[in-house]
């Protein structure tokens, strides 16, 4: 499934997070995966901001 949201200018990750919450999350909940043509850091920021906006506590674990 795809959702397309028209925007008129470049968008920052915080604005994209708001658009995602207003247009996709309310219909489908959290994504199982994210496909993006931007760098991995952008997607990481998107998920981090989305978790913060939805008050989801993220606990990172690093295995050695």
Description:
The protein has helices at 13-28, 40-53. The radius of gyration is 13 Å and the shape is globular. The protein is built from 2 helices and no strands. It has 64 residues and is an all-alpha fold. It has one domain (1-64).
The proportion of residues in beta strands is under 5%
How many separate structural domains?
1
Number of helices: 2
Helix content: 40-55%
Indicate the radius of gyration in whole angstroms.
Answer: 13 Å
| Main pleated-sheet profile | none
Please identify the structural class as seen in this structure: mainly alpha
Using brief descriptors, characterize the structure shown.
0% strand; single chain; mainly alpha; 2 helices; globular
């Amino acid at each position: 499934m795809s959702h397309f949201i028209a925007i008129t200018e470049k968008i920052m990750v915080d604005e994209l997070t708001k658009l995602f919450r207003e247009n996709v999350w309310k219909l489908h909940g959290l994504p199982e995966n994210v496909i993006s043509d931007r760098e991995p850091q952008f997607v990481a920021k998107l998920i981090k901001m989305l978790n913060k906006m939805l008050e989801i506590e993220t606990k990172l674990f690093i295995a050695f």
